[in-house]
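Subgroup meeting minutes
Present: P.N., E.W., G.H.
Scribe: E.W.

1. P.N. recapped why we're keeping a running log of single-chain structure predictions: easier to compare across weeks, and new members can see raw inputs and outputs side by side.
2. G.H. added today's entry (77 aa).
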Amino acid sequence: MFTGNFNVSYKDSKGVEVATGYATLGQTVDVHLSVKDRVAYESDKTNIDKQEVDFRTKVLQVADIMGLATIENEVVE
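Output recorded in log:
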């Protein structure tokens, strides 16, 4: 069985790393976030949230290819 590990660094708008994350793919999909600088993270939350969405999307695309998850194109408002 294939497994995968992915790492990511979340940077604020000044390019400073404020959080790190990782994902593991095996029989399940696990995504984790660890905040290094809470003040910087909260002050640039919109930017960090966009990065996290991008990372989760990429991880889920790989999981979909592996047959671990299914991505449905659904608009949520």
